[in-house]
Amino acid sequence: MFELETLQIIWWALICIIFACFLLTNGFDTGIGIMLPFAAKTETEKRILINVLAPHWDGNQVWLVLAVGALFAAWPIVYATTFSLFYFPMMLALFCLFFRPVGFDYRNKIDDPRWKNFWDWGIFSGSTFPTFFLGLIVGNLFIGLPFSIGELERPVVTATFISLFNPFSVLSGLFCCSLLVLHGAAYSKLRTEGELNKRLSQFIRMSSAGSLILFIILGLMLWLSVTGLFIDSTSTIQYQVGGWLTNYQVFSASYLLPLLTGAALISACLFSFKSAILSFFASSLSIIFAVLTGATSLYPFVLPSSSVPSDSLTIFNGSSSAYTLKVVSVAVLFFVPLIFLYTAWCYRKLWGRLNSTFIKENNHSLY
Predict the structure, then answer these.
(1) pLDDT per residue as tens digits for the range 148-178
(2) Low-confidence ranges of the chain (pLDDT < 70)
(3) Are strands 301-303 and 227-231 parallel, antiparallel or unpaired?
(4) What integer pLDDT is reported at residue 163 of this predicted model?
(5) Running DSSP on this structure, what letter comes out for residue 354?
(6) Per residue in 55-89, is it b (16+ CB within 10 Å) or e — as a string?
(7) Which residues contact 317 (CB under 8 A, 6 or more apart)?
(8) Burial class of residue 343, CB neighbours in 10 A (0-12, 13-18, 19+)
(9) What spatial distance separates the first Cα and last Cα of the chain, rounded to whole Å?
(10) What's the 3-state SS for 281-323?
C-alpha cells in the first residue's frame, strides 16, 4: 500500500478535485441565482431561469457535504482551525443560504409582484453572499491567517470578522462571484430559447471579461505586493513578497495553469454568441484551471499562518494517520464514482430546453 507521504499528496489532489466538482455543479445554479434579478425581464423569464436549476440544485449540495467530510477525515486539525477562523462568515453564508430553497418554493404562493420581487432578491442574496464569502476565505489563505499552535497542540485563533476584509480577499470574493455568474449564464444558455437566450450571451461576455480582469489583478498582487510562504532547500518555512509563485519557478510547466485559465475565460467570451456548448465547456475549464492555479500556488500549505509562519498547516503536518487515510481512501473509491454516475444519470434524464410554452403548460407543477 502507499506510504503516508504519498497518501497525503493523493488526498490533497482528491480534495482539489472534489472542490472543483462542487464549483462545477453548485456553481452554475449559484450563478443563476446571482443574475436572476438582472437577466430575466419578465415573470415568465424568471421562472424559466429558476426551473433551469430546479431539478439539480439540492443534489449539487452533495459535493459540498463530501468536501467538508473529506476535509474532516483527511485533515482534522485543518478542519477545526478553518471553522474557528471563519466561523462568522460561514454562519452568515449558512443563514443566507436559507433564502434559496424557501425562495424557490414560496415566490409563487402569492400572485403579488411585491411578494415575488422580495423572494427574487432573497434568492439573489442567498446566492451572492455565500459565493462572496467563499472567495473571501480563499483570498485570506494567500494573505495568511492569524493563528498559532498552542502548548496543547491546539490552534489559537486571533482573527476577527473585520480583519478578513482586505483588498486581496475582497477582489478574490468578487472574482468568485463573477466566475460563477459566467458558469451560470453559460449553462442557462444551453437550456433556454428566445430573447432570454440572446440576453444571456451578454452576461457571458461581461462576466468572462470581469473574471479575466480580476484574475490578472490578483496574479499581479501575488507577484508584487502579497507576502507568500515557501519552503526552502533546508525545509525551513520562509516568507517574502511573491513567495506564492515559488512553485511556478520549481515546476516550470505549472505556468500553463494561469495561462489556460485566461485562455478559457477568453474562449467563453468568444463563443458566447456562436456556440452554447463550447461556451459552457470553456466556463467549466476556467473553473478547473482556476482551482488548480490556486492549489499549485499554495502547495504544500493548506492554512498559512501570518502570526507564526512555522505553525502553518500543510498537507503533511495537518493530515490524519496513514491508517485513517487508507480507510477513507477505500470509501472514496466506492462513493465518488457512485456520485458521478447518479449525477450524470439525473442530468441526462432531466435535460431539455425550457421556454414560455413549457412554463404555461406546467404552471402548477413548476417553481
Answers:
(1) 887 777 788 888 888 899 999 999 999 999 9
(2) 1
(3) unpaired
(4) 87
(5) B
(6) ebbebbebbbebbebbbbbbbebbbebbeebbeeb
(7) none
(8) middle
(9) 50
(10) HHHHHHHHHHHHHHHHHHCCEEECECCCHHHCEECCCCCCCHH
Q: C-alpha grid cell for residue 218?
A: 490578483
What's the pTM value of the predicted model, to 2 decimals? 0.93
Compute the distance between CA of residue 46 and CA of residue 354 in angstroms, rounded to an integer.
Answer: 11
Cell (9 digits) for 222: 501575488
What distance in Å separates the CA atoms of residue 134 and residue 291, rounded to the nearest whole number? 13
Q: Distance between CA 13 and CA 342 in Å, rounded?
A: 23
For the chain, percent helix, then strand, then coil, each to nearest 5? 75, 5, 20
Supply 303's cell numbers: 492554512
Could you write out the DSSP letters of every residue in 1-55?
---HHHHHHHHHHHHHHHHHHHHHHHHHHHHHHHHHHHH--SHHHHHHHHHHHTT
How does 237-248 read in b/e, with b if 16+ C-beta sit within 10 Å?
beeeeebbbbbb
The Cα 258–Cα 219 span in angstroms is: 9
Handedness of CA 62, 211, 253, 236 (dihedral sign): negative
- Give the separation between CA 211 and CA 225, rounded to whole angstroms: 20
Return the half-sphere exposure (C-beta side, CA atoms, 13 A cut-off) of residue 290.
32
* Residues 367 and 104 sit within 8 Å (Cβ to Cβ): yes
| Calpha distance 239→185 (Å, rounded) | 40
* Cβ atoms of 229 and 144 closer than 8 Å: yes
Cβ pair 86, 164 in contact under 8 A:
yes
C-alpha 78, offset from chain centre: 18
Residue pointed to by grid coordinates 501570518 = 306
For 190-249, give the DSSP string: HHB-HHHHHHHHHHHHHHHHHHHHHHHHHHHHHHHT-EEEEE-TTS-EEEEETGGGHHHH
Q: What pLDDT does residue 1 have?
A: 63
Cα–Cα dist 45/13, whole Å = 40
Neighbours of 322 (CB within 10 A): 16
